[in-house]
Amino acid sequence: MRDVREYHALSRHSFQAYARGPGTIDWDRQPDPFRRFDGAQCLPLPLWQGRADAASAWFADIDASAALAPVPANVEGTGVALDTDSLGAWLEHSLALSAWKQHGGARWSVRCNPSSGNLHPTEAYLVLCGVDGLRDGLYHYRADLHALELRCAYTAVSSDEPLVLVGLSSLLWREAWKYGERAYRYCQLDIGHAVAALSYAALLNHWSLAPLAVADDTLASLLGTDRVADFIPGEEEWADCLLQLRPAADTAPLAAIPATLAAAADAGQWYGRAEVIDRRHFYEWPVLDAVARSAARPASAAGELAPPPVEERAAPLPALRGESLSALVRRRRSAQAFDSAAEMPREHFLRLLDHLLPRPGLAPWNALPAVTGSIHCVLFVHRVAGLAPGLYALPRSATGEVLMREELRAEFAWSAVADAPPQLPLYQLVGARAERAAARLSCQQAIAADGVFSLAMLAEFGAAIEDRPWRYRELFWEAGALGQALYIEAENAGLCGTGIGCFFDEPVHELLGVRGDALQSLYHFTVGRPLRDSRIVSLPPYSGRRS
């Protein structure tokens, strides 16, 4: 495999054949979804008891305050100081378990952040300096225990202010076990979901996340993922991204600190060795390591993080006063089936779409790198009150609209939806019942037809990765973040979402008239009223702990 373009073509599904995957799967022997470092000190984080201010904060209020009036941290009565309590609350609302599920003899966990196949390849590491109650160093987050494992203790790091960086990596084998060559795509979508989940959760403490452009080699050194002796062969992790947690109003750049911390990691005291997650690796997928190398950010691109200007938009429409953000993120689930007779109010639909548009400083878009606004939506509208069924386009930028008009079928109508908010570029392409097409294109999955709507995410592809192959994974991050926004907005509207990674790539492009690679479909999603399986019992995520 020569480059990311070749991988993308190799990992496509078609009507004739799926991308290569394992011939057999032993469902009783899935890879362990929880990474553990044997020999590393484990420090339980406090469980969130519900601060009065955050517990009563409606998602509508937090969403608006984040967009219009960021609150600086460490201000009496408004901000939240960095300590184990606030860090614990942040992680509990982003990467922690949200429940255990049980059906007969089967028992499995679900988390605040979704994952393809519930396999969870994403691992999270925290670089902490000057945080009350914790030694300066690198920590690994244990979602199964809601705890931090001390991986490296720093001996000489100076920081005038508390410093919190979060690094995310991908354990490719977890997804490859089920999905084979397409697994890299799903790992990067999961990174996007995790980034967005962390960004939303930061709002509870009046924090925000800012992306850092760090060379992959530097990031691997900082996170310890390059310590070959600490990992089982075939179960290594690939470092993906680094973000800084900071007060919501802080926009100052952070440049040299990651390199300084990488040096501190080299000189620090390391602890622990990764435990085995799967004792039987029946298949090997060398193409996954190859694309990970091809998509790595080189040292020459370190510090290169200059997002293109985002066009000015009106403030987002006020969110529905549904529930608190805390309740929404912990209630989020991926629906397995939908009520095919359910209908969505037009007002709710337009409000949801408006909240998918990227706006400066608004979570989760402020946590993404330079490709923000490079993913656009083609919607299969099935049952939205007052809106004719059919195929619709939602370009998320002005340049994206130009590109879509150039690349999609010439016969599409591009009729602006009447009475849509003026800042919402929503167009009807063709009026028709689209349930059968949506299901067929999404690998024959009924959820794409039974929801009130489904959509395909089209990325500005060819030009974006031409000279910057690391942008390939960043496009998936944006798609994953868009999926997380859909989950949260659907929950707040009393519905449910489901991400769809399995779709037939070229047939989607053929339906839309896309011929080259200027646009490529990266992710599908569907929203509807879920049908609950009463046989499945839901249990608390950390029932063995009191605090």
TrEMBL record:
* Protein name from the UniProt record: SagB/ThcOx family dehydrogenase
Which Gene3D superfamilies does the record cross-reference, listed alphabetically?
Answer: NADH Oxidase
In terms of PANTHER family, this protein maps to: NITROREDUCTASE FAMILY PROTEIN (PTHR42741:SF3)
One Pfam family name from the record?
Nitroreductase
Ranges for the Nitroreductase domain? 329-529
Instruction: List where the protein spans the membrane.
Output: none
- Give the species this sequence originates from: Mangrovimicrobium sediminis
Signal peptide extent? none
Q: Which GO terms describe its molecular function?
A: oxidoreductase activity
